[in-house]
Each structure stands twice: as structure tokens, then as C-alpha cells.
């Protein structure tokens, strides 16, 4: 193995959250660990948050917090992929806390099971901890459901603590004015920054080498300076990647140490790998700007790699257009001149025939669409068959875009509006009918906001699911409010 060449006992720079390789020189990580432990052990907080850019050590911080806890005092659930529906998320949490697969499927039963589990854990003299990594992938509806979950607390203390760790997108969602009720429940809010200086990077590298068994200096001063520059001034994940590849290159070339030149060659290799993807975007505007000059005969002098595909397409496009126009233009006057008397009676006959055929087709299609909408509306409102509302009423977006609650969906802020009478009618619906109604309203909201699915990589199913969860939440809140008033 490459690390044995350097006299090491194990890989020193693997990008894994190994607590045994933790270096206590990253100030913001040390502060994050200390504050999170305080929120769990002494602060009696219900929510603790850790945010930071990619590669700065959020997952390592969570592992260090868990490793520092007395395992006999806590039941711990660690969620690494929260981009799932809330019911599935709750089943995963309960499964990890109990040590067996959760069989419940309904949300009401899951909440009851979780509540019983909290008090059972308290009776055992322990506390429930829920760690959620990559929390920036959670939908706004799931964040709201977590907030409601924190209501399951004792009068004198919090029965569990949730620790959320995620990228800057999580901070934007939590700090949104619409989520003030969630933000106010956060006990500690920590931000992880880059390693502060080149000297601390030197200590970080040498300490990890020492923990792996190094007995001598491997990276020279020039190498440390080059690593500081090419790691974007102190990103731990980039430092680990560059150092690991430098050790492998040194073993391959029988080097005694790693200097700045080796580091630069390794770092430039990453730039070359990512380079071709960038220039491909730049020639496009330049090509379009120089396109008029191609008409003067310069097209053949353009680089073959750029213009080869366009050379084929440009002569092919006008060819069929010119050919079709040349054929159509002589055919039209020929037909009119040669048999005007024969074709004039044929045209109205054909027109009359087409109109007679299309008019009943249109009316049948319209009648069929209306019948389908009426059936869906009646099914959605089975509890009130006396006065089924017209199909236009459940439109989630009114004419006034400024009304309703703004939610963040696929990086856009949209207004999800449900008319009050629809919420009132939904009080008597079954859970299945409410879910069906929410699905219809979510689909109409997506039609009203087409920008949600325009961006590259947008998943219409996930977007529809997020909007549907928001609408279901509002319908349930309306039902709870009506029940309290009643």
C-alpha cells in the first residue's frame, strides 16, 4: 500500500469522518462541537443547528459529538439521507431508536409510537437524540413537520434533541421569515468556516501524519504553501484529497519527500479534469457573434472542431425549405388555373364535411372532460353529496398572487393559496379524500408556476410531493383550528 512506503500504519488523509483522525486545530469545528454538546447535555435545547459550506467538516463534527457522549445516557438516531417523505423519515428514526424495523404505516400511529418511545426512554433514565446530516436536502414540509414534532415535550424539560447539519441552503430556509416559529426554537446555531491560516494547515497535515504513524517530516515548507493555495485557502476535504494523491505520486516515483512542485502538478491535474467542461460554454456566444462574418466565406476557415457540426446542419436546413417552396409555388397556380370549376364545388363540400365532423367531435370532447371533472369532484367531496362544489373552486391560486403563505419550492418562493371555503369543506373529509384533494391542488399550483420544473435536474414528482405536503398541512391546521373553536 502507498502509505506503507512512507512508514505509516494507516491512510492519513482518507475523506471519512473518523474521530480517531480528528485534529483539534480547526477553531470553528472545535467551537461547534462544544456548543452542540452544551445544547444536548446542559442546555436542555430541543433543536441545535450546524451549517457550513461543502467539505468543511460538518459530518466530522457530528461524529465527534456522538463519540463524546456517554452512550448509556442516550438513545441515538443518525439520519444521513433526509430527502424522503416525513412518514418514511419518522419510521427510520423509530427503527434506529428501537433497534428493529418499524411496521407502522400511518402517520397518526407513528406519532403515537414515537411519543410512547420518548416517555419510555425517560423512564429508563435516558434521552432521545436525533442527528440529521445533509438537512439542506429536507423539504419545507418536512422542516415544518419536525417543528410540530418538537411539541412532544415535557412541561419541565425537553424529552429529545434534534441536531440538524447542512449546507448554506439550510440556513436560508431556517432564516426565512415564514419559519420564524421554527427558528426561535433553535438553541445553538453554529457556522463552520475554513481553516484560518497556512500555519494551522501545516499543523493539521503534520498531526494527521503523526496519528497515522509518521516518524519524519514528509511535506516540505513549499508543499504546505502550495496546499494552502490550491485548497481554496483551507478547505479540509481538498487538503485531504491533495495530500493523499501526493503521497501516492511520491510512492510511485520513489520520492523522499513531497515538495511544492509535486503539489502543484497534482492540483493542476484537477484543473485539467474540470477544464474542458468550462470552455465548451464560452465559444457559443463568440460563435454567434461572429456568425455574420461566415456569410462572406469565412466559415471554411473556422476551426473544424467548432464548426464541423454546424457545417453539416447549415446546408441541410435551407435545402428542404427551398425544395418545398419550389414545388408548392408552381403546384398552387396550376391547380387553380386548370380546374377552377371542378375544385370550387369540392372545396365547400370538403369544408362543410370537415365542419360537420369536427363540431360533434369538439362537443363530445368537451362533454367528456366535464364529466371527468365532475366525477373527480364528487369523489373528493363524498361527505357532502348534497351540494357538490363546481370543479373550478379547488383552484389553489387566486387572482391575487400576494395572498396566501409563501413557501420555498425548488429554490423558488411561491404562494400556495387555498380558498377558505375549500378548507372548511375539507373538515368533514376522510384522510384519503384530503390527500386526493391536496394532490389535485398541487398539480394546479405547478401549472400556475411553470418555472418550478424548468431548471435542469428539477424532479416534477418531488416538487409535486412538496407542494402536496404543504397543502395537506394547511388543511390539517384548518381542521385543528375548527375543532378548537367548536
Automatic annotation (TrEMBL):
Domain ORC1/DEAH AAA+ ATPase: 47-174
Domain of life the protein comes from: Bacteria
InterPro entries membership: AAA_22, ExeA_AAA_ATPase_DNA-bind, P-loop_NTPase
Matching Pfam families: AAA_22
Region (Disordered): 275-365, 379-401
Gene Ontology molecular functions: ATP hydrolysis activity
Bias kind Pro residues: ranges: 385-394
PANTHER family given in the database record: GENERAL SECRETION PATHWAY PROTEIN A-RELATED, PHOSPHORIBULOKINASE _ URIDINE KINASE FAMILY
Name of the molecule in the record: AAA family ATPase
Organism, scientific name: Syntrophorhabdus aromaticivorans
Lineage, uppermost ranks: Bacteria, Pseudomonadati, Thermodesulfobacteriota, Syntrophorhabdia, Syntrophorhabdales
Amino acid at each position: 500500500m502507498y502509505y506503507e512506503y512512507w512508514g505509516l500504519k494507516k491512510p492519513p488523509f482518507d475523506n471519512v469522518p473518523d474521530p480517531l483522525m480528528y485534529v483539534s486545530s480547526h477553531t470553528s469545528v472545535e467551537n461547534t462541537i462544544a456548543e452542540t454538546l452544551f445544547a444536548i447535555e446542559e442546555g436542555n435545547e430541543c433543536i441545535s443547528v450546524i451549517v457550513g459550506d461543502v467539505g468543511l467538516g460538518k459530518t466530522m463534527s457530528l461524529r465527534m459529538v456522538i463519540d463524546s457522549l456517554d452512550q448509556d445516557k442516550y438513545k441515538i438516531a443518525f439520519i444521513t439521507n433526509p430527502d424522503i417523505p416525513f412518514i418514511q423519515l419518522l419510521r427510520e428514526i423509530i427503527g434506529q431508536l428501537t433497534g428493529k424495523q418499524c411496521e407502522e404505516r400511518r402517520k397518526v400511529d407513528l406519532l403515537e409510537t414515537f411519543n410512547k418511545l420518548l416517555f419510555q426512554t425517560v423512564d429508563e433514565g435516558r434521552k432521545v437524540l436525533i442527528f440529521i446530516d445533509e438537512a439542506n436536502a429536507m423539504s419545507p414540509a418536512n422542516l415544518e413537520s419536525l417543528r410540530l414534532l418538537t411539541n412532544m415535550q415535557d412541561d419541565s424539560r425537553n424529552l429529545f434533541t434534534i441536531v440538524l447539519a447542512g449546507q448554506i441552503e439550510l440556513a436560508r430556509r431556517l432564516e426565512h421569515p415564514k419559519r420564524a416559529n421554527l427558528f426561535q426554537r433553535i438553541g445553538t446555531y453554529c457556522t463552520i468556516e475554513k481553516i484560518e491560516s497556512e500555519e494551522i494547515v501545516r499543523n493539521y497535515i503534520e498531526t494527521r501524519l503523526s496519528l497515522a504513524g509518521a516518524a519524519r517530516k514528509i511535506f516540505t515548507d513549499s508543499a504546505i504553501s502550495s496546499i494552502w493555495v490550491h485548497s481554496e485557502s483551507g478547505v479540509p476535504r481538498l487538503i485531504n484529497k491533495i495530500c493523499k494523491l501526493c503521497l501516492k505520486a511520491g510512492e510511485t516515483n520513489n520520492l523522499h519527500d513531497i515538495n511544492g512542485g509535486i503539489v502543484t502538478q497534482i492540483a493542476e491535474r484537477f484543473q485539467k479534469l474540470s477544464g474542458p467542461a468550462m470552455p465548451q460554454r464560452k465559444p457559443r456566444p463568440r460563435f454567434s457573434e461572429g456568425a455574420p462574418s461566415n456569410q462572406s466565406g469565412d466559415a471554411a476557415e473556422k476551426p473544424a472542431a467548432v464548426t464541423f457540426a454546424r457545417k453539416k446542419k447549415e446546408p441541410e436546413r435551407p435545402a428542404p425549405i427551398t425544395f418545398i417552396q419550389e414545388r408548392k409555388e408552381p403546384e398552387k397556380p396550376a391547380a387553380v388555373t386548370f380546374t377552377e370549376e371542378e375544385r370550387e364545388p369540392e372545396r365547400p363540400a370538403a369544408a362543410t364535411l370537415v365542419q360537420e365532423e369536427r363540431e360533434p367531435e369538439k362537443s363530445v370532447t368537451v362533454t367528456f372532460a366535464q364529466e371527468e371533472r365532475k366525477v373527480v369532484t364528487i369523489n373528493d367531496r363524498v361527505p357532502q353529496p348534497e351540494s357538490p362544489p363546481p370543479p373550478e373552486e379547488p383552484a389553489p391560486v387566486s387572482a391575487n398572487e400576494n395572498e396566501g403563505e409563501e413557501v420555498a419550492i425548488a429554490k423558488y418562493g411561491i404562494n400556495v393559496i387555498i380558498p377558505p371555503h375549500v378548507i372548511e369543506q375539507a373538515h368533514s373529509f376522510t384522510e384519503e379524500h384530503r390527500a386526493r384533494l391536496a394532490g389535485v391542488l398541487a398539480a394546479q399550483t405547478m401549472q400556475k408556476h411553470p418555472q418550478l420544473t424548468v431548471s435542469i435536474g428539477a424532479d416534477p414528482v418531488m416538487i409535486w410531493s412538496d407542494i402536496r405536503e404543504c397543502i395537506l398541512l394547511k388543511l390539517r391546521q384548518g381542521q385543528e383550528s375548527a375543532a378548537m373553536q367548536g
